[in-house]
Every structure is written in C-alpha cells, then in structure tokens.
Design brief:
Blueprint lengths: L1 E5 L2 E5 L7 H8 L18 E4 L2 E4 L13 E3 L1 H4 L6 H9 L8 H14 L5 H7 L9 H15 L6
Parallel strand pairs: 1-5
Antiparallel strand pairs: 1-2, 3-4, 3-5
Helix pairs in contact: 3-6
Length: about 160
Amino acid sequence: MAKLKVNGQEHEVEVDGSTPLLWVLREQLGLTGTKYACGIGICGSCTVHVDGKAVRSCTLPVSSIEAGQSITTIEGLSPDNSHPLQAAWKALDVPQCGYCQPGIIMAAAALLNENPDPSDADIDARVDNICRCGTFNRVRRGIHQAVKHMKGGRSA
C-alpha cells in the first residue's frame, strides 16, 4: 500500500513498491498526461514534480516517495490550463505532435520555479527533454514568453 499526495489530493494505492511512479499515475490514478516513451529516464516525457523538482517518473519507484512529499503532474500544474507556460505553448503553437510536451512543460515549470528569468543556456541545460519533432527553438520562445507574462508584460 502506498500513500501519495498527487495534485493536492491524498491517494492510497495497492501497488508493489518497485512499480515506477509513472505507472501508478497512469494506471492507478488515471492521470494520463504523464507520458511513457523511453522507459529509462532519458527522454523526459514522463517528467513530473516531486516537491517542486522535476523528476523522471518512469524510473522512480513509488517506494522512494516519502510521506508528505507532494507530486504534481501536468494535470495539476493549473486547473484550467492557464499556467503561463501552457498559455505560451498555445499562443506559439510550440508542439507538433505534442506527445512529449507535458514533460517539457513540467521541466520548464521546475526551471522557472528556481530561475524566474533563464537564459537560453539555462534552458538548454535544465530542459533536456527529447522532442522527436525538434521543437526546441519554439520551446525556448515559449519559456521566454511565459517569463514575460509572469513579470506582467505582454500576455502569453
């Protein structure tokens, strides 16, 4: 039995402790915005926040989540998709296929929590998710537009 706080709600799930968090989120809790892709923690499609830090949930055993830690998925980033990153993604048509974008948005949100005005080099270093469509330049533009919005500048 695992007790998890996901998107502000407490959940008890019957699961083996070695099960990756990704599968608990998707299969047990129905939060399918977190995606499975590589399964070995390289691509970042499965990125969620644990206590505000971006983590790859496909390789994180649920037993490693400590009592009281808070997990945030793309569904919990904002209740109505109004987070400045989500608004910028829509305004700039950042995704192509979109499969990896929830993970990229979660990585970018964790970056902005720690560094509210990142340079391109900061973005490249911290948002290291893999997008097969190659939308990396639009991702950077989207992050910069979200920063402007968060600072009260032009809206996303």
